[in-house]
Amino acid sequence: MMHSGRENDMNAALKPDRVVAAAAPPSPVRLDSRELFRNGNEVVIVHKGEEYRLRITRNEKLILTK
Fold it and tell me: Which of 18, 20, 26, 42 is 20 to 30 Å from the Cα of 36, by its Cα?
């Protein structure tokens, strides 16, 4: 099947000249909960002017509440 010159030009325009690899997303910040809580069992996190409480439960689980 023959393609017109215009079709070839359009197909060429759709193909990238080179492939650029996407940058890997940055690694998340990693904190040890002992550093975050120090000697307590609750911290307050302020996000966009709102306060959130992150606390350690009796069962050693983390609970985040607004």
Answer: 26
